UniProtKB/TrEMBL annotation:
<feature type="domain" description="Gfo/Idh/MocA-like oxidoreductase N-terminal">
    <location>
        <begin position="47"/>
        <end position="168"/>
    </location>
</feature>
<dbReference type="InterPro" id="IPR000683">
    <property type="entry name" value="Gfo/Idh/MocA-like_OxRdtase_N"/>
</dbReference>
<dbReference type="Pfam" id="PF01408">
    <property type="entry name" value="GFO_IDH_MocA"/>
</dbReference>
<dbReference type="InterPro" id="IPR036291">
    <property type="entry name" value="NAD(P)-bd_dom_sf"/>
</dbReference>
<dbReference type="Pfam" id="PF02894">
    <property type="entry name" value="GFO_IDH_MocA_C"/>
</dbReference>
<protein>
    <recommendedName>
        <fullName>4,5-dihydroxyphthalate dehydrogenase</fullName>
    </recommendedName>
</protein>
<dbReference type="InterPro" id="IPR004104">
    <property type="entry name" value="Gfo/Idh/MocA-like_OxRdtase_C"/>
</dbReference>
<feature type="region of interest" description="Disordered">
    <location>
        <begin position="1"/>
        <end position="24"/>
    </location>
</feature>
<feature type="domain" description="Gfo/Idh/MocA-like oxidoreductase C-terminal">
    <location>
        <begin position="183"/>
        <end position="424"/>
    </location>
</feature>
<feature type="compositionally biased region" description="Acidic residues">
    <location>
        <begin position="1"/>
        <end position="15"/>
    </location>
</feature>
<dbReference type="InterPro" id="IPR051450">
    <property type="entry name" value="Gfo/Idh/MocA_Oxidoreductases"/>
</dbReference>
<dbReference type="GO" id="GO:0000166">
    <property type="term" value="F:nucleotide binding"/>
</dbReference>
Length: 467
């Protein structure tokens, strides 16, 4: 047997090629050969209303600025004046199409092709159901909703009303992650036997979002596995390739970010804290030091909800807002670490870990063990080791991440997601969508079943209980 001494790099087509044929994202169908009627429909831009002009809504709407011939933002709804006026200005939206609440859109005759629903987790179901009934195609942020029943209702309503639904499982549009499935389907590792997948959330990212921020408290948003890791369970479910999950078990808890871990002498707010210097979670380090260095993107941009971030507004936000609080004195209750074990039809097993306390931020690591080889991915590169030849090959995929999407755009996947949705709406061809209703509903149900296992300390036999 030849020893591991040869490495081959297989490249995806270069960027200009991807741009020439933007819809060809590696689906089984080749969208370069669209019918004339489809091409005609794709010639006019898709009109979109953004519901929730926060971090995600604004990011996705950049597509209109980059591709004005393909998409226009013609409406916005957000109770925050600053947020809706910012989007209105960016896209020159007529006053009549600016709303303080999504219900304003429902009261009007349908006036756009599609809506982007980017409201907080607990405010997905009602606008999704109401706007599907009005006939809008829907790009819906994850999680679809916070109960399995509500997720089912969204899917049912979209199907009944003949509207397309794309759930923002952005990783499904990441070219490297997509390549994993392409390699598996080509038989590169034989029959998959075990999937190991890690989501390292990142120590300051976790403190920002899940201790001080929007996803810290289950009653206000959702449990961590749904809020953070529905992406990962969806990927595992996707890699399992249509095999049904039979059993799931899960363990996890909130560690460290608890009142009893508060260092002696710590103050309630980092700006007043005498021991702040020795704390890696200090808000001064996470936000103020960044803005002093001129970094005003995420996470700094999130903490000034009614103004642009600068030293004054960030200091004020840390003095009075939620992001200046001591991480040991917050009302957080979501898990910092959770494991999920799954058994699929045919004996395929999967083990997933989510961990808060990591250096890497969301740079997932995956190893898939198959009967003929082993595939591993660090988020940038895939390595396949072939048991027969003893050779390893490396695979990459070109990622197109235009400026405005950039680093905050999940390495270009946000852009690809919007592009797929816009292509689907423009052409009337739902096969552009990778994260459509039925498959996403199944993976969301798996998340609810895993969480029930954790809460009830039992193995859940999938599809047999109330979820
Ligand atoms: N796909 C991903 O990878 C990803 C990443 C981050 C967040 N998310 C999800 O995206 C959603 C939005 O997150 P975000 O970070 O943009 O939050 P955000 O708080 O920045 O934005 C939410 C916006 O919705 C607005 N809103 C609240 N009630 C509304 C109403 N009744 N009508 C219209 N707008 C309303 C808020 O004012 C706010 O501007 C959440 O569900 C979140 O879990 C997804």
């Amino acid at each position: 047997m030849q020893l591991l001494d040869v490495e081959e790099i297989e490249e995806e087509p270069p960027e200009e090629c991807a741009q020439m044929h933007p819809p060809n994202l590696g689906f089984t169908e080749d969208h370069r050969w669209l019918s004339m009627a489809q091409k005609d429909r794709m010639a006019s831009p898709v009109d979109v209303i953004v519901v929730g002009a926060g971090n995600r809504g604004e990011t996705y709407s950049h597509f209109a600025s980059l591709q004005p011939q393909r998409m226009r933002v013609i409406g916005v709804a957000d109770p925050r004046k600053f947020a809706r006026e910012k989007l209105q200005k960016q896209h020159r939206i007529a006053d009549v199409n600016v709303f303080a609440d999504w219900r304003g859109i429902v009261q009007r005759e349908k006036f756009a092709d599609a809506v982007f629903i980017c409201t907080p987790d607990r405010q997905h179901k009602n606008p999704a159901v109401a706007l599907a009934k009005k006939g809008y195609h829907i790009l819906l942020e994850k999680p679809m909703a916070v109960t399995a029943e509500d997720c089912t209702e969204i899917v049912r309503t979209c199907i009944q009303n003949g509207v397309m639904l794309t759930v923002c499982h952005v990783l499904r549009y990441d070219p490297v992650i997509h390549k994993i499935k392409v390699l598996m389907d080509s038989g590169a590792i034989g029959d998959p036997v075990h999937i190991q997948h890690l989501e390292p959330v990142g120590f300051f990212h976790f403190a920002h979002s899940f201790v001080r921020g929007n996803w810290r408290n289950e009653a206000e948003s959702s449990f961590a596995l749904l809020a953070k890791s529905c992406h990962d369970i969806d990927l595992i479910h996707h890699w399992a390739g249509g095999r049904r999950c039979l059993k799931v078990s899960s363990f996890g808890s909130l560690s460290h970010f608890r009142k009893e871990k508060r260092p002696p002498g710590a103050a309630d707010r980092c700006l007043d804290c005498p021991v702040e210097e020795s704390c890696p979670y200090s808000a001064r380090k996470i936000y103020l030091d960044r803005v002093k260095q001129g970094c005003v993107g995420w996470p700094v941009s999130v903490i000034c909800s009614s103004s642009l971030p600068d030293i004054e507004s960030v200091t004020e936000a840390l003095k009075s807002g939620p992001y200046g609080r001591c991480v040991y004195q917050c009302d957080n209750d979501v898990c910092t670490n959770q494991v999920v074990n799954m058994e699929f039809e045919g004996g395929l097993t999967a083990a997933f870990s989510m961990v808060a306390f990591t250096e890497e931020i969301c740079k997932r690591r995956t190893t898939i063990y198959g009967s003929k080889g082993e595939l591993s991915c660090d988020g940038h590169e895939i390595r396949v080791f072939d048991f027969l030849t003893g050779r390893a090959t490396k695979h990459t995929a070109e990622t197109y991440a235009p400026g405005a999407f950039g680093m905050g755009g999940h390495g270009g996947a946000d852009y690809q997601l919007v592009e797929a949705f816009i292509s689907a709406v423009a052409s009337g061809d739902a096969s552009f969508i990778r994260s459509g209703p039925e498959e996403t509903l199944l993976s969301h149900k798996l998340v609810f079943e895993a969480e029930r296992s954790r809460l009830e300390s039992k193995v859940v036999f999938c599809g047999t209980d109330q979820d």
